[in-house]
Amino acid sequence: MNQRVIIKEFAMNSLHQRHKLIRVILPKNYDGSRKRYPVLYMHDGQNLVDPSSFSGFSWDVVKTMDELSEECGDMIIVGLDSHSTKRILEYTPAPLEKNVVKYLQKTVGIPKNEIKAEADEYGEFIIRQVKPFIDYIYRTLPDRIHTFIAGSSCGGIISAYIGLKYQDKFSNIGVFSPALEFVKESFFETIQKIKMENTIYLYHDMGTEENDNQSKLYLDLQDKFDSLIRTKLGNDNVMKIVDEGATHSEFYWVKRFHQYYRFCFEKMQDNSLD
User: Which tens digits make up the pLDDT trace of 110-134?
Assistant: First the structure.
């Protein structure tokens, strides 16, 4: 394991002491300085350095951090591992589509009475347990201007939800290839109800080949999400990317992560000037 990657296990107070691994990924010069750093919280933390068991690729965030260190600056990245069976539930803020519920029952093997949105409990875990620990143990810049949250697929959905729910804690949200087809109207209704400040910035993207049979649906839902967010935040606070030919994979997310990394530092400067 890379010596810049520190693994810590938590018992989640908000989810019946369910165990969760987090991975603290430090900038290359962390031990040789006294600087304090912005922090990016990311979901599916097990894929940030090591290859995903599904795609065979990783986000390779250490390489991106090092490549953009001089151009943009440095940050600490905190990856929260996803649960082997409850991932979709932890990352879901709204009622799931019926076909997803059926999949969780029949294929994943989750009893019907356990299939419920756990986003609020998962968010509480991050805010009440993980962030205080990170800010206490590591040299962070703990204010909202220097605190970001991002993820892909269902991790994109939960990033949008937690980032908007806790705008007093986060200033920047990264939503990579969000699995909006899992929640559809219920998610848009949830986001519509949230009051958004003009000091929150949101990046979102989608590949044109996310799913062979449903790629158009993915793009249509992205357009709907983009319209909703821009109506509430304004054009200057939103960055939308459509990646031609890209599929639903870390292979493409790692490339777009460079753009999001730059977006974080650019908008951090804008917030600092306000």
Answer: 998 889 999 999 999 999 999 999 9
